[in-house]
């Protein structure tokens, strides 16, 4: 008999305690072992029920999800998926939860009381399964740099396009990975940086702002027509594809509402294909932690055009899906740990010789 994935659902909403189990019970490999209306009840039930995965609301009375998560991570090590509201407050709490060690998150539709809650069904099922398959993922979360406001934020002054480009694709585990990597990039970094992080609309702007406060480089959510400049990182907005186009005035960001690719909008493949077309051998592509295969084809096109392709290694990924897919297709020139990436990228773009990473 196949072992079922035991899930504990924690939410102060009686409706959500009904709807989430209905969604999860649609998978015969998942078993709801219990529900709890707040963090105090949840912690009492964890010892008895021994769930494999927990879904956790963040806004609850008595003990909220943030405090409960601290205990779950420290005392039980159970992978936890945050169920968050699509609000500014919900986004703030979600980023806190990811920093503490939550596996990933899903967002409730704004009208969660309606049948639209089923819009998150596939995403929730996929993330529960992935959390179960990666039970020790929280141990791989890198300690992020503190978010300290930079008093002398560098704003790129040149109107010349960046002659080199770094394109990054990332998903599950990405917020912590990027929060660890980008603060290491110096303000005189010569390449433009473009990032696709799988994240819903409304979250990417806040994520970019948080990164901007901790980085020497400028980090912002991309807007149509933004210039691609050295020392600037543009993050694709949630629910918009990000491409680039070279014009006489410089290289600009182009946003698109075209259909999802690989089930995602924004899609890493869309960005990588665009980068390969516009920058060719002046492009470096980095594929990082995440579920699925998004980006594995586009990064191959960058490699064919002569660009450098890099994948995060298994040991430092929260989920090895995206890098693994690219590696297995033969599209990666170097594989390296998150710990080595900052130093490698600085040396690569500033022109020093390096020996980090291996081809796998």
Please describe what this structure looks like.
- With 360 residues, this protein is α/β, with parallel strands linked by helices.
- Helices cover 34% and strands 21% of the residues.
- It contains 11 helices and 14 strands.
- The chain has helices at 14-25, 39-49, 65-76, 88-100, 121-133, 174-181, 204-214, 268-279, 296-304, 321-328, 338-350, and strands spanning 5-10, 30-36, 53-57, 80-85, 104-108, 165-170, 192-197, 218-221, 232-235, 241-247, 250-256, 283-287, 308-312, 334-336.
- It has a 7-stranded parallel sheet, with helices on both faces.
- Strand 12, helix 9 (296-304) and strand 13 form a beta-alpha-beta unit.
- Helix 3 runs parallel beside helix 4 (88-100) and helix 9 (296-304) packs across helix 10 (321-328).
- The protein is elongated.
- The two termini are 36 Å apart.
- Residues 144-151 and 353-360 have low confidence and may be disordered.
How large, in whole angstroms, is the Cα Rg? Answer: 20 Å
The profile of the biggest β sheet is:
7 strands, parallel
What's the total number of strands? 14
- Shape verdict: elongated
Overall pLDDT metric:
89
Alpha-carbon distance between the termini? 36 Å
Give the amount of beta strand, in percent.
Answer: 15-25%
Class by SSE composition: alpha/beta
Total helix count?
Answer: 11
Helix content: 25-40%
Q: What series of H and E elements makes up the topology? A: EHEHEHEHEHEHEHEEEEHEHEHEH
Low-confidence stretches: 144-151, 353-360
Strands of the largest sheet, in order across it?
Answer: 8-9-7-6-12-13-14
């Amino acid at each position: 008999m196949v072992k079922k994935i035991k899930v504990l659902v924690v939410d102060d909403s009686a409706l959500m305690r009904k709807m989430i189990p209905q969604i999860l019970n649609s998978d015969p490999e998942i078993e709801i072992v219990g529900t709890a209306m707040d963090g105090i009840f949840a912690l009492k039930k964890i010892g008895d029920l021994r769930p494999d995965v927990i879904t956790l609301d963040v806004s609850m009375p008595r003990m909220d999800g943030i405090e409960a998560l601290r205990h779950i991570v420290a005392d039980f090590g159970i992978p936890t998926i945050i169920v968050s509201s699509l609000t500014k407050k919900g986004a703030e709490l979600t980023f806190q939860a990811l920093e503490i060690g939550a596996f990933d998150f899903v967002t409730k539709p704004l009208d969660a009381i309606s049948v639209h809650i089923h819009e998150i069904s596939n995403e929730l099922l996929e993330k529960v399964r992935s959390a179960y398959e990666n039970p020790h993922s929280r141990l791989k979360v890198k300690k992020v740099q503190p978010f300290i406001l930079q008093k002398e934020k560098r704003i790129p002054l040149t109107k010349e396009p960046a002659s080199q480009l770094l394109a990054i694709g990332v998903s599950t585990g990405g917020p912590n990975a990027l929060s660890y990597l980008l603060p290491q990039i110096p303000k005189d970094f010569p390449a433009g940086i473009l990032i696709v992080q799988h994240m819903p609309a409304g979250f990417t702007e806040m994520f970019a702002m948080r990164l901007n406060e901790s980085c020497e480089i400028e980090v912002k959510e991309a807007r149509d027509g933004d210039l691609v400049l050295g020392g600037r990182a543009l993050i694709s907005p949630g629910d918009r594809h990000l491409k680039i186009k070279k014009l006489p005035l410089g290289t600009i960001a182009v946003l698109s509402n075209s259909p999802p690719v690989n089930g995602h909008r924004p899609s890493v493949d869309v960005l990588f294909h665009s980068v390969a077309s516009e920058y060719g051998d002046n492009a470096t592509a980095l594929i990082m932690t995440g579920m699925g295969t998004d980006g594995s084809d586009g990064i191959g096109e960058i490699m064919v055009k002569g660009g450098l392709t890099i994948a995060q290694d298994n040991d430092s990924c929260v989920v090895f899906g995206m890098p693994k897919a690219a590696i297995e297709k033969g599209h990666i020139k170097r594989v390296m740990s998150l710990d080595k990436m900052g130093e490698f990228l600085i040396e690569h773009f500033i022109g020093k010789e390096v020996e980090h990473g291996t081809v796998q």
